[in-house]
Amino acid sequence: MGSIEGLMSGFQVALSLQGILFVFIGVFVGTFIGMMPGLGPISAIAIMIPITYSMDPAIALMMMAGVYYGAVFGGSSSSILLNAPGVAGTVATAFDGYPMAQQGKAGKALAIAAIASFIGGTVSVVLLMLFSPLLSSIAVSFGPVEYFALMLLGLTAIASLSDGSTLKAFISATLGIIVVTIGIDGQTGTARFTFENAYLLEGIDFLIIALGLFALAEVCTLIFNRNEAADKEKNEKIGSLKLTKEDVKDIKGPITRQSFLGFIIGVLPGAGATIASFIAYITEKKIAKKPEEFGKGSVKGLAAPEAANNAATSGAFVPLLSLGIPGSGTTAVMLGAFLVLGIQPGPLLVQDNPEVFWGIIASMYIGNVFLLILNLPLIPYISKVLTIPRPMLISLVITFSMVGVYALSFSTFDLYLLLIFGIVGFLMRIFSFPAAPFILAFILGGMMEQALRQTLTISDGSLSIFVERPIGLTLMIVAVLVMTVPLFKKKSWNPAKKKTDAA
User: Fold this and answer.
1) Which residues pair with 191 in a beta bridge?
2) Angle at CA 283, nearest 5°, toward 282 and 287?
3) 3-state secondary structure 369-435
4) CA neighbours within 13 Å on the CB side: how many for 86?
5) Helical H segments across 16-91, by residue range
6) At what angle do helices 299-315 and 93-102 cross, to 10 degrees?
């Protein structure tokens, strides 16, 4: 069965009355779960598994897939309006989305996020249909060496996330790497930096840090700057949803580039939407003519991560459907759902259960259209969050953050950690330490350490393995160039020195 024939058979399943209904339920539930800070799609999919026992496997899996990409689609709302990421993949959305909302452009920011998400999701579904077998073989070729080199390349971009001081950015990143080492060492089983506290043995969850450094830190800022917040509240407007020709021109390139890049990153097992969104943001800032606009309400800085994180969600289905390997935490739960429903994902899935393989892909086309239709008309109503009085809004952010964190493991200790990271985030703002490098280092640090140790185990401690693998060597060379080229540029161009020489 060819791709076109298979897709047509998939649309027969997805466009049935039952298929349309459950795809809509999936994306609808996913959208609102994404809007609630800290919840995320994993819990929702896990809850749905026992509910779908008696359902047709193709319909059940299409609904669960809708919850996944629907949550990433909807997670941008809380990031833009409250600076409280709904899901981990929308942390980078807050960098420019929240400043736009503060400038009275919340409507435009939500519209850009919806359009970028739709295009990123649609492009990735097309790529999923056309290149799934080829990309599966590429994903398999990525071993520990390549992953270490890729993570190293990601860490070299930390300077791009600084607000001015590169030194402060690297200090922030160092703290992130220190925090990610807390817990039991996966290779030796040794407890590290737990201070004999049993609650720290499993480490610290990403969402605790994200909500602390962004949501609670913002709450602290609002409380301590009550007079400024009150003045801003009087002038606060939702703004128009319309995009100008200049806006369309600005976001066209980032959306196109990052849709492809996000999909490729999503294909790599373990990478996921979070890493894709950060790399997309960093890439666009690197190539922008005015990088100083990023972090201050840039439409490019908003469109890039939104296109990438939605593209990555579809990319994560490539290793799941083609190899039976989950590409993210959510697809790991999806793998369990496949097995519970009696479906074995992998190379034989297309032959044994073509209606499932092609049904899921076809449902993504339909689901992305549903998401656009569902989200765009709701923007004026979602934006009204900004009209809520400040004291009530602060209370809601704190409540949602605490409920989301408590739902992770039902531990009050996590709430104390949330408070600690909220204070840390507030102090970082006071002393102008950027939070983004902390988050990026936390995400990449654990994967980087694991990949390095696996590499050295394979090579019996020899470093020559980093030179012997072409893909890994290429990525490491690029990482070194990214770190060194800006230094040489600064040395070669020093206006103060030239003025002194001229004098």
Assistant:
1) 184
2) 115
3) HHHHHHHHHHHHHHHHHHHCCHHHHHHHHHHHHHHHHHHHHCCHHHHHHHHHHHHHHHHHHHCCCCC
4) 26
5) 17-35, 41-51, 57-74, 76-82
6) 140
Structure tokens at 495: 């206006």
pLDDT in tens, 387-416: 777 788 788 888 888 887 887 778 899 999
Fill in the DSSP letter of residue 191.
E
Residue whose pair of structure tokens reads 């400040």 in the numeric block: 390
**How many CA atoms are closer than 13 Å to the CA of 217, on its beta-carbon side?**
25
Query: What residue type is 265 in one-letter code?
Result: I
**pLDDT tens across 94-112, in order?**
889 989 988 888 888 889 9
Contact 307, 258 (CB under 8 A): yes
Low pLDDT (below 70) residues in the chain: 1-3, 37-40, 43, 86, 132-141, 157-164, 226-240, 269-271, 327-329, 385-386, 485-503
Distance between CA atoms of residues 346 and 326, nearest Å: 11
H/E element holding 184?
A: strand 183-184
Amino acid 219 reads: V
Let me know: does 446 contact 179? Beta carbons within 8 Å.
no
Enter the pTM of the model. Answer: 0.76
| Residue 183, strand partner residues | 192
Distance CA 214, CA 434 (A): 11
